[in-house]
């Protein structure tokens, strides 16, 4: 709410038996002033909810995935990022705060992928992986049903291992045959003089993002997902490399 102006609320009272995707309503009068107050003091958020006789709709948020920034260089910034998913029947209006959020664009997975490969926008590898994971679902209702069916399952937290190659790099993910659960790689890289294509020809058990350049990622997945989640399908931009 503070950064994007999107407020997820529901009326007070018991949850309905049938949980449907949320609806977008007109912002109540004075919401901009409330947002400024919340920025100054988070306690005002509870007062806003009381004023609207609503409660934060935490039930609309679904734990989707969690990622740790892989090691790239000493002193580099690293984060623990959790992705949540919320299903709404139509896109809500967004009011960027121009500090943490400077712009907004609603896109389907295929549209987002096209914008990335055409260099209109950029995704970090975890974001691109998640965009491709969402491409498994043909409709919002399919995605919403999956979230409801999956909400009691454990959410995996991944830390990719970076393998630097002769012509790019790979982010190796848990389950990949080259992924090593070794604390040494919390602060170190793997490296090889081989090219990406050579490494791909040698292996069979894949769960990796192959990176050739800033806007050229391939995803290779041959392992089964854990905890009943879905993994993205293989995504290869240029088959001539393999």
From TrEMBL:
Keywords associated with the record: Hydrolase, Magnesium, Manganese, Metal-binding
Entry keyword Phosphoprotein: no
Parts forming coiled coils: none
The keyword Protein biosynthesis is annotated on this UniProt entry: no
Domain of life from the UniProt record: Eukaryota
GO cellular component, one term: mitochondrion
GO molecular function annotation: hydrolase activity, acting on acid anhydrides, in phosphorus-containing anhydrides; metal ion binding
Cofactor(s) listed in the protein's UniProt record: Mn(2+); Mg(2+)
Cleaved signal peptide residues: none
InterPro entries: NUDT19 (IPR039121)
PANTHER family the UniProt entry points to: ACYL-COENZYME A DIPHOSPHATASE NUDT19, TESTOSTERONE-REGULATED PROTEIN RP2
Family: Belongs to the Nudix hydrolase family.
Name recorded for this polypeptide: Acyl-coenzyme A diphosphatase NUDT19
Organism of provenance: Camelus bactrianus (Bactrian camel)
């Amino acid at each position: 709410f503070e950064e994007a102006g999107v407020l997820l609320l529901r009326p007070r009272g018991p949850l309905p038996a049938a949980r449907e995707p949320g609806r977008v309503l007109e912002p109540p009068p004075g919401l901009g002033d409330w947002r400024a107050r919340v920025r100054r003091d988070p306690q005002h958020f509870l007062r806003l909810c009381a004023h609207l006789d609503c409660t934060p709709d935490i039930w609309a948020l679904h734990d989707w995935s969690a990622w740790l920034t892989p090691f790239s260089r000493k002193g580099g910034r690293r984060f623990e990022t959790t992705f949540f998913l919320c299903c709404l029947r139509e896109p809500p209006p967004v009011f960027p705060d121009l500090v943490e959020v400077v712009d907004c664009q609603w896109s389907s997975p295929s549209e987002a992928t096209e914008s990335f490969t055409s260099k209109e926008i950029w995704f970090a590898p975890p974001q691109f992986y998640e965009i491709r994971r969402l491409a498994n679902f043909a409709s919002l209702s399919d995605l919403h049903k999956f979230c409801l069916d999956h909400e009691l399952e454990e959410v995996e937290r991944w830390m990719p291992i970076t393998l630097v190659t002769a012509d790019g790099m790979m982010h190796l993910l848990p389950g990949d045959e080259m992924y090593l659960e070794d604390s040494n790689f919390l602060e170190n890289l793997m490296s090889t003089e081989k090219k990406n294509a050579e490494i791909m020809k040698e292996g069979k058990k894949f769960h990796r993002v192959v990176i050739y350049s800033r806007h050229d990622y391939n995803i290779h997945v041959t392992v089964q997902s854990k905890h009943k989640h879905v993994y993205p399908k293989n995504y290869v931009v240029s088959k001539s490399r393999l």
